[in-house]
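Section 5.1 Outputs to date
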Amino acid sequence: MPEPLGNSGSKPLSYRDAGVDIEAADKFVGKIKAMTGISDEAVLPGAGGYAAVYRRPSGEAVACTTDGVGSKLLLCEEFNRYDTIGIDLVAMCANDLICVGAKPAIFLDYFACGAIDIERSTEIIKGIVHGCRETDMLLLGGETAEMPDLYGKNHFDLAGFAVGFVTEEELLTGARIKAGQRVVAVASSGLHSNGYSLARKIIGPDSPFRPDLLLPTNLYVRPFLEVRKALGPELTGAANITGGGWTNILRLSKTVSYRLKAVERHALFDHMLKDVALAELYRTFNMGMGLALIVESKQSAAVAIEIFNRGGFAACDIGEAVDCASGSPGVEILESKESLFIS
């Protein structure tokens, strides 16, 4: 088990200190895009790159995405609990699909391990099945790979692949986002499935918050689709707040910044403040907001909030999109005692 990162107080810890370089990852993704050589005529612009959207002659497009759950997997072994990590896997894919306006439909999984443990493997798949049921997706198949030379006996990895469908009228591209529109924050359950390389080192084995690191990721599909139907074009954007924290909202449009209020959050986020600067927390973790919606007006925000509240999710209007004052988009966050700016 990795040792918690020490901090003398001279320098707050960061995601990079934990071994994760988000900037390098972004550059790598850029190189992949350049190598594919896919024609612009074959794809439609999905906001934020949350899913690839393939144009079909019928007018209904196919949205595809793939993801994993990162080093949260290591906590399953630590606590000998495997029944929720499959929910995380489905959520990471399904919550991305809805950010381009798509309705999730099909899911495939990849499960790799050093040795197949029937009981453990069954618990993992139970979580995937539960997640698919809650998002109304069909689990059509997958791949199980047993590789003892690559993985330790108790180590495993998971990846998911999801497909959804969206009409060009329902597609969220970010092009309609403009200053003055409202931002609705939908609550997270905890860390969800991002930032664990840092969080596991700060929230050590003896911390009372350690078990909360396994809380499963919220599944937002059903209330989101209800909001999409209710608001139509008044819903202009959606951001799954994953790796990169609140900067994810900047993926939707390069023409606006945001002025937002902090939201109520799990106590484990504030516990990490002793080791991590507040701005770094907002750049790394969801800080209580699992999903952000951009809507036309306060009235539209009220409709979205009511739908998510009825679905069992706390939601609130936390601010607005604003013109880029400096020409470089960013997020101003108003905390109770300070304000900060991240980009």
